[in-house]
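Memo to structure team: turn this sequence into structure tokens by end of day. - J.P.
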Amino acid sequence: MLLAPTVPDVLEQTFLGNTVAAYGIALLSIGVGVAIAHLLKRIILSRLKRWAKRTITTLDDQLVRLIERPTLWLLYLGSCYVSLQSLTLAPTVSQLLTAMGVIFATLLLLQLVGSVAEYSLRIYGYIHRHQPNMRQSLNALIPAVRVVLWAVGIVFVLDNLGFDISAVVTGLGIGGVAIALASQGILQDLFSYFSILLDRPFEIGDFIVIGDMAGTVNQIGIKTTRLQSLDGEQLILANTDLTASRIQNFQRMAQRRIAFNLGVTYETSMTQLEQIPEIIRTVIEQIPQVAFDRAHFASFGDFSLNYEIVYLVETNAYTVYRDVQQQMNLAIKERFDHAGIEFAYPTQVLHLTRPDMLGQGTAGE
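Reply from structure team:
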């Protein structure tokens, strides 16, 4: 008479090198790991979500949503990996499961780290949101960060799968040198582009001067930067040329300092010469947004007595400066006409000698 197998006998039966009991323990461990993951989700992530809802910005809500899924899947994967370690598996199956686990874990880590890095850049952009070029800088940096993370992730996966990373890195290095030599100019402009975005010597909307070229920045591209000149044409400059040049950025001036000269004739009386600085001071102080600095009788010219005048315009707007200078010139001309002061202009004095006077000096001797 055959007896039915008892529970202990069933648990001791072996399939694929493991007992039923071992399989049961592995499944139980996976279930416990999943339960712990859900418990952590309830305790930690729920509190993070409640905290995020109480803040003003929505960036923290986005961070919680970004890290929730990869974190849970990493916990699930970790519990499965620990549970399967108690089983005796065939080498091929073990290698396959290890490879799949490494790839899956790397993808989850890349997603998690990338989300945190992107969130950090967004926070930085939110803090500096008053800078108009910050969004463009972030939009250029985020893809670069992703490329670096994926490159590191691929090298990590290849290393854990048994590939010779040194040979791969050497091959990439040789190929990188060849590509760098072939596209040296493009890479220089690309690095200059990131240098402009990070250092921010100028931003979109700034009026800058580079050598004999001047204009308002319209676009900062990967290879070139475009300016709109005062005459209306578009100036296209390579980013490498910009980073290697001296740039005058007039947009960031708190005030504009102006120095100019004017000359009066040598026939001007001493009283009039002493009145000129006070006349100029009075004219400048009557113009709004302008601060008088100084006015001095500076030098004796070839055909004029020269005055140097300095004043400050309390704005960086070029149009305002030109309007102020025009108003000042008209007022000074009016006051000089009223005071009888004449502006100097280039003159020549010719000394003529009559023919009958030639040789008199010699004859007299």
